[in-house]
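hey so u asked for the seq, here:
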Amino acid sequence: MNVVIYSETGSSDFANLIKLDDETELREFDLSELENYKQYNPSVLVLDMELNKVREFCAVRKLEFPVLVPVNEIPDGLTIRALSYDFIKKPINETELNVRLNALLKTYSTKRELLKTAMCDELTGLYNRKYLHLRLDSEISRAKRYGTNLSCLLLDIDYFKIVNDMYGYDWGDILLRKIAQMLSALVRKEDVLTRYGDEEFIIILPETTEQQAMIFAERFRRDVEKMEFIPANEEERHPITISGGISSFPCMEAVEENSNTLIRYAEHALYNAKQSGKNKIVEFSKMNLGC
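ran it, structure tokens below
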């Protein structure tokens, strides 16, 4: 988590009073950097500035994290649209500061855990389909704005039903978790890994061309092909393979593409991979559909 302080000089008088655990970082900036607050991903934002500047900053924003404002007097009628907010009177008491700050951090952490529960798959711990559509639409908007590439990789475990039928659903769950762990070890911090269906996974790959996504997908396909999956009471490994479909944005001219269209392209490519023998990756743009 991050506690981010903005002050007139970029060096707040009370920053050295703040006591944080090893997992929380403290960062300080002057007001010239205030418009860039999102890039520092605040868990709590501290606005050590004149109240009229606080009012101006908060009037046009709805902040998704708590805000703490040091003041000389508690103001009347100053509403901050944020996850939560609090004021602390100067001169700052160290104990009071840390109690209030930790309470705001707890509020942020609790909301994050609730969102994680709502947005994550219980079995694998990966993001779920609801989160996928939210993030994919957001990443498409970002790619449009900055003219960057964006790829979507849909993966499906081949013959997964046979695993369930032969060894039982518990071993099917073990296989799903194993695949999720292998993918988690390969993806970058900026990638978004989700469980899409029973045995399907989708990875959003920002700033990634279709060709670059193909390199990633082929590497993973080969890793799965070599994986050791030996169900209980079996003497030999059960062979596991995976198929995939890749789509990239932008693709079709004169088409208003969103998360649904990009996923549909990837589904078409996956279907082609399945129909042509499985254990392969297909790029949507190579299917002669006019991309």
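The helical segments are 51-59, 94-119, 129-146, 160-167, 169-186, 210-226, 259-275. The chain has two domains: 2-117, 129-287.
lmk if thats what u needed
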